[in-house]
Write a structure and sequence with these properties.
The protein is of the alpha/beta class and 364 residues long. The protein has helices spanning 8-13, 24-29, 43-56, 58-68, 71-87, 100-111, 122-140, 154-158, 167-171, 188-205, 227-235, 245-268, 270-287, 289-292, 294-312, 319-339, 352-363; strands at residues 18-20, 35-37, 92-94, 143-148, 211-214, 219-220, 223-224, 238-241, 346-350. The chain folds into 3 domains: 8-128, Rhodanese-like domain (Oxidized Rhodanese, domain 1), CATH 3.40.250.10; 139-244 and 352-363, no CATH class; 245-334, no CATH class. The mean pLDDT is 92. This is Rhodanese domain-containing protein.
Length: 364
Amino acid sequence: MRADTQDYLALFLDDAPLIDTRAPVEFARGAFPNAVNLPLMTDDERAAVGTCYKEEGQQAAMALGHSMVNGDIKALRVDAWLSQARQHPNGYLYCFRGGLRSQICQQWLHEAGLDYPRVEGGYKAMRQFLLGSLEQICSRQKILVLAGHTGSAKTDLLNELPDSVDLEGIANHRGSSFGRRADGQPSQIDFENRLIIAMLKHQHRHPGKAIVLEDESRLIGRCALPHGLREAMAKAPLIQLQSDLDARTEHSYLNYILRKSAEWQQHAGAEQGFELFIEDLRESLFRVRKRLGGERYAVVSEQLENAIRTHREGDAAEHRVWIRSLLRDYYDPMYDYQGQKHPERVVFRGRADAVREFLATLRS
């Protein structure tokens, strides 16, 4: 039998399959990328056992738990663990603290004929390991920040690089007020866990090399960058990716209209998906109305409605009009204002090919 483990780093670097035996409500708050939730107890069962523990103590709570998870219910849950464990013989199981719940699961698996290791310390210890790793990364890791006007295809360039981490990809959001994706975002804890794991992998696969991150505000949709990482990025050297307004308009049209409408339709069906896509555009524009100002918002809103009408008729091209207005009159001035604050941080400016060459020289 493989031994129980406290080697949290290896678990994350190796993408070890994990069986999370916590209740679904705990899993929903935060888990790890390679974990599947196969709980020992449902939310209601866990709540009842917890109340019993507070009122009558551990022995009574354990007796209640065994009385609820017994017979056919127990057999179904053991079968689920067996199936997952046999599919992933290199995996581990865990509960919140690596205590009673995971020990019970391990014992029941043993009685069913399969020995399967658990993670000592459980979810809590793994989460603390990741938070400690992030603190170490933020204080020691070399970081380069890729900046540029909205629509300059920073994410596309970033994903070509072997030494990058895609913050927007991890947050499942395109950035900006229009960046919402049809299938939603991870919880804050899930976002942090995935982000830290990605940075740990970079650190171990590219030791001593700078990591390239895209310039982001504090929030990517509803996911907040960890404070320490945000501070480290605010001090890091900047590479400015340059692109003209026509190219940025076209890229934004492709990304925020054609791809995004297709995503919504794939998610919710052609008709409903298109209506949700249109609703999303309107809501996104409404969110920036105060910064646009009343008069400018009215103009762009009318341009958007014109584009929606022609899009319904089968021609999406009119969206380029309001996109161009928004880039020129809202996003560009905001970016230029922010960019003037720390010009000393800029180490390189150029178009995509020049940025690629610059970064290649740093890796050589």
